[in-house]
Amino acid sequence: MMGISEKEFAMLARLARLEFDGERKQEFMSEFEEIINFANAVNNAVAGDTESIKDTGGDNVMFEELREDTVKESLPNEKITSGVTPVNGYFTVKRVVK
Amino acid sequence: MKYEMNCGLETHVELATETKIFCSCTTRFGGAPNTHCCPICTGQPGVLPFLNKKATEFAVRAGLAVGCKVNTVTHMDRKNYCYPDLPKAYQISQLDKPLSYGGFIELDSGKKIGITRIHIEEDAGKLVHERGNTFVDYNRGGVPLIEIVSEPDISSAAEAREYAEKLQLIMRYIGVSDCKMQEGSMRCDVNVSLCPAGSGKLGVRTEIKNMNSLSFMEKAIEYECERQAEILDEGGVIEQATLRFDEHTGETYVMRTKEDAQDYRYFPEPDILTVIIPEETVERIKSELPELPFDKMRRYTDELGINAKNARLMCRYKNLCLWFESALSYGASVKHSVNLITGVIFSFLSTEENKEKFDLNLTAAEFAKLVKYLDEGKITVSVAQSALLQMLQSGKCVNEFITEDVLLGTSDGELEKICQDAIAANPQAVADYVGGKEKAIFALYGFIKRATQGKADMNKVNNILSELLNK
Amino acid sequence: MKSVIGELSALLKSRKISSVELTKKYISEIEKKNGNLNAYVHLTFDEALKNAENADKLIKEGKGTPLTGIPMTLKDNICTDGILTTCCSKILEGHRPCYDATVWKRLKQCGAVLLGKTNMDEFAMGSASETSCYGAPKNPVDVMRVAGGSSGGGAAAVKAGLAAYALGSDTGGSVRQPAAFCGTVGFKPTYGAISRYGLIAYASSFDQIGILSAGVEDAAEIYNAVCGADEYDMTCCPRNMPEIKPEVDVKGLKIGIAEEFYKGLDSEIRAAVDRAVAVYEKAGAEIMLVKLPSLEYVLPVYYILACAEASSNLGRYDGIRYGSRAENYSGVDEMITITRSQGFGKEVQKRIMLGTYVLSGGYSDAYYKKARVLREHIKAEFNSVFGLCDVLLAPTVPQTAFPLGYSGGNPIETYLSDICTVPANIAGLPAVSVPCGVDGKGLPIGLQIIGDRFNESAVLSAALFAEKSGICDIDGGVL
């Protein structure tokens, strides 16, 4: 498989909420191609059906082990919002005019 | 009509658990912004979800109540999309192993609307936009939801409404949600597509998001149906799109089209292990299901002889039914109980919300005492009605209001004696009556009312008098 | 190196030294050496002295445990309430979590003393700690070389005596590889043995908190204190976890050698591992050859799945609730995009893009889903191998510590250096790296011991043998 098109790259960047300007984009796309080629080993290794992925080594949890529905105290608003400057207790994104 | 409509509903119902789906914060409605929050439900770096057992049980219960099968091996998935009300930038939901699947809801017409699946997921927070500023409150974030997806079996706006009402009623009955549309604890997305009548093929569908009132939902479906029909009439094609219904204009607007559809990049949630629900647990949950509204309605009409209208009215409120059934167990008669409930109690609990809560300061036992006075003919219906109203208002017991002075001239024997006294005391009136002046009997009525202080059952009086006078 | 906790603990218990005094000694060492080594990125000396006073009180009251009063450090991706935890990323600049990670909560209860937070690759993505926004830590053995990654700062701190031990995290080898590069013990327990609550996620199904220590007994002591079920981590096993007491005796121990681990190996490393195997055999262990053909795919499988999970895990850094935020933007959407583009470094952005790609509609079948299938194959192969033998011996890294600045050059080659460590993460197995000699340049070589799930006992026992038999003794030149 080839690398990805500019259009696809733009779509991925939009989903990832990242932006790349011209030079960085070219650099990124070429490295990306290299990595995708590396990942292609996987694509080529498995033929056909991937629908029935069985988790062999994984652990399960029994219904009874799920969390009991008992309220615990929430954190104070000041603590929850301590990383930002809240407005009336809200997380806030203020309008900024560039 | 030359088109047939196929409509399916995706109904989101907030579960009535005490705590959120992945943390132990309260689910209580309201509260100052970001006060029902912890590191987990605000998506702080490093936190992990721990699935709520009750939420899981409620989802299974909901499934069983609408005839679904249960996936006893189930897992959660991540649905990735970035929006400020979603603190992790993914919603933990279920993609290919919903907790239950394959049920139905039966409409009054007997038509069955299929339920494709019911899965659990977390609610998002609340965004407020104000003059270009954005404010975010995560109190609702992480409240457990079930999404109930119907088959596109619905063919009219009225059917959609009936389906949603029945679903709402069932969810309330089984206690998994209060389903308050105005508070957002129940909301519907509606898919609508048209196809030429009789073709049996599904057309291109549009989805109207987030309906929070049943009447708006009906209007939106009707509008969308007409809109699509017009396009098809003109030979156009329907574009797959997500729509918003404007309550003020009564029209639908495109939010996004297929081109900018989201790519949710679903994958199995690695932080939550596969959950195994043992068969015994499913059986236990099934056995704990209460009598469902439509079974109850059938029992009320078929076994208790309540007319269909009253049975339907009463069965809308589960707490009321429980209270009513308790009164019956104290020996109250069905007929008088139903009349007093649908008359006095319904007007006392004027709002839908009050009827739903059915939070009376009158016990079923005390109500039954009152009904029994009526059943035994010791009081009149109007006395019973006014006593009941006063009991409801004051919270006092029946003896406070059914005192000597309202009790009917007790035994029939006594009443007969009073009637005889009346005849003896009014010879002229008796003669006039016997002579054909029917109105003359009012003199006797007056005597009897005075003698019984107006508590006499006038039907009985009539019977006794006509018997005595015809001798 | 040899275990230090036992000795320090004895000194503290007998009150020959107080925890405050001991802590001050470490602080003065850090002040002397950290400027050069860059092992620590946040120093918490005030906190440390408070912890130490508290520890001294516990010891006085007879409530001490072997970890009480011992100065240590946490990787910068393990949350500490009110104390900087930044994942060495600009996007979490100034971030002080509002809660404690379970491991830190448990250690704090034992009276542990937190000296600071140690350097790492940004969001643990890297093999040299060179993607850190604070610059790379240096290898105490040779400061022109990297300390490894991603838990490079922790390994450097332990090696240089700037902490008695360190907790790190191991997603694809991030504890074992720096341990091998610096010549310390690096232990990654079974996936699910230690709660991940409060470990800032890179790749959830691979991430595991691990231990960097001077000796194997230290690692066991720390493991016993932090392992076990947690009401905040569903993936942390509720099973009974017996205390681990490693034994030196390897008589009858069945050791598997899988040739797949030895491909493209530096000859000096091959020789060191072979020598170690011979010592085990001489002591009565049974050596057998086993096959793990699917190891061919571990690297692409790892990078596909880890990046997929990372792309999702790192979606939350949007500048709204914590961390840095762009200054100039119009509207929330643009704020998020600019914040992320400015806040994440190049390697992190690359992995987010790759993860987004392998999960996206058109490619999920070709990459993500196939990688999941292969992961199950690999797990199954390990399962059958552990039906035959108790532990696998393998090199930890195919090379010794590379020069500073080298890893930036060729991404694929750097990825390939994880070939020996990634399999244990793919299959969730316990694995430990212990020193096993040095190469011609005097750089430490790591011997890796991998065991079956929840068989940490066998892994640490075999490691303890390596230590006691002199395999580990890189300074003595016994071998």
Describe the SSE topology.
The complex is a heterotrimer of chains A (98), B (471) and C (479).
Chain A: H1 6-16, H2 22-45, E1 60-62, H3 77-80, E2 91-93
Chain B: E1 3-14, H1 53-65, E2 69-70, E3 73-74, E4 77-80, E5 90-93, E6 100-106, E7 112-122, E8 126-130, E9 133-137, E10 144-150, H2 157-173, E11 186-196, E12 205-211, H3 214-233, E13 241-246, E14 251-257, E15 267-268, E16 274-276, H4 279-287, H5 293-302, H6 308-315, H7 318-329, H8 334-348, H9 352-357, H10 364-375, H11 381-394, H12 412-425, H13 427-434, H14 441-451, H15 458-469
Parallel strand pairs in B: 12-13
Antiparallel strand pairs in B: 1-10, 1-11, 2-6, 3-16, 4-5, 4-15, 6-7, 7-10, 8-9, 11-12, 13-14
Helix pairs in contact in B: 2-3, 5-6, 7-10, 8-11, 10-11, 12-14, 12-15
Chain C: H1 5-13, H2 19-37, E1 40-43, H3 45-60, E2 71-75, H4 102-109, E3 113-118, E4 138-139, E5 142-146, H5 152-159, E6 165-169, H6 176-182, E7 185-188, E8 209-213, H7 216-226, E9 254-258, H8 267-282, E10 286-290, H9 298-313, H10 332-343, H11 346-359, H12 365-388, E11 391-395, H13 411-416, H14 422-426, E12 431-438, E13 444-451, H15 456-468
Parallel strand pairs in C: 2-3, 2-6, 9-10, 9-11
Antiparallel strand pairs in C: 1-3, 4-5, 6-8, 7-8, 7-12, 11-13, 12-13
Helix pairs in contact in C: 2-3, 5-6, 7-15, 9-11, 9-12
